[in-house]
Structures are given as C-alpha cells and as structure tokens.
Design brief:
The chain is of the alpha+beta class. It has a single domain, classed as Aldehyde Oxidoreductase, domain 3, CATH 3.90.1170.40. Helix content is about 30%, strand content about 40%. The protein contains three helices and nine strands, in the order βαβββαβββαββ. Strands 3, 4, 6, 8 and 9 form a five-stranded antiparallel beta sheet that branches. It has a four-stranded mixed beta sheet with strand order 1-5-7-2, with helices on both faces. The protein is elongated, with a radius of gyration of 15 Å.
Length: about 140
C-alpha cells in the first residue's frame, strides 16, 4: 500500500493527503488533524512555533508509516507535519489512513499519532500573551 511522510512549511492540504491514500480496497478513510488551540494550562496562546531536525524527523515519520503498513498491510497512510510559525486554528499535523475496514483504520491512526508524539524530533514553542514556553512531547 501507499505510504508517505513529510515535513512542510506551508499550510497542510488535507484533501491532498486524503487523496494520496485512496485505493480501490478502502472502505474507510480516517483522519486526524491536530490544530493550534488558543489556551494551554490557563495561558492564552497567540501562536506556536514548531522546529524540527527535519531530515531526522522525516526519516522517523517514514519509519512510522512503514510500521503501520507492516502491521496493517491493507492500509495506505499519509503523515504530514508542519514546521514554522502557526496561528491559532491552523493545522500542525495531519494523518490520513485508508483501510478496508474502520476498526483497523482507527487502530492504525491512533498508533501513528501516538508514535509521532513519542519519537519524532519536533519541538513546540508556545507563544503566550505574557511570554513563551517550550513544551515537552509525550
């Protein structure tokens, strides 16, 4: 099945990511979209700056996509993470999976986002109205 993973600097095109996963055997197309929210631990968030060791991050995201395809061979996956300055409401990460059945699709999607948060070297700096903080991953 098709698998793709990449780091981008421009806004994420969800339709394009979904289109990359399309295949004739897919009965379910499932997505996860992480967006910048306006509050964290009681502080007002103005924006977030994502930084990455891009070569390593892209490689690790590809490894996650490979693992998904190994565990769920009939699933196609597309993983996109944006870096740079993002405003409230903008997408920072988008994952699409196309699967013959929804149950496996949900499992694969959950696995992919959890592994991304755990292992991909992307750092998040939240900019507040009263300062900033670097946020640790899971």
């Amino acid at each position: 099945m098709e698998r793709r993973a990449r780091i981008v600097r421009e806004p994420i095109d969800a339709r394009q990511a979904i289109g990359r996963t399309a295949h004739a055997g897919a009965g379910a197309v499932l997505t996860f979209c992480g967006v910048v929210r306006d509050e964290h631990l009681g502080r007002t968030v103005q924006s977030i700056e994502y930084q990455a060791y891009e070569e390593m991050a892209a490689s690790e995201m590809e490894r996650i996509a490979e693992e998904v395809c190994r565990r769920w061979p009939e699933i196609a996956i597309d993983i996109v993470h944006r870096v740079g300055q993002l405003r409230v409401g903008e997408a920072s990460v988008f994952i699409a999976v196309a699967s013959p059945h929804r149950a496996e699709g949900f499992e694969a999607l959950r696995f992919a986002i959890d592994r991304l948060k755990e292992t991909v070297p992307i750092w998040k700096k939240e900019i507040y109205t009263d300062g900033y903080a670097w946020i640790e991953g899971s």
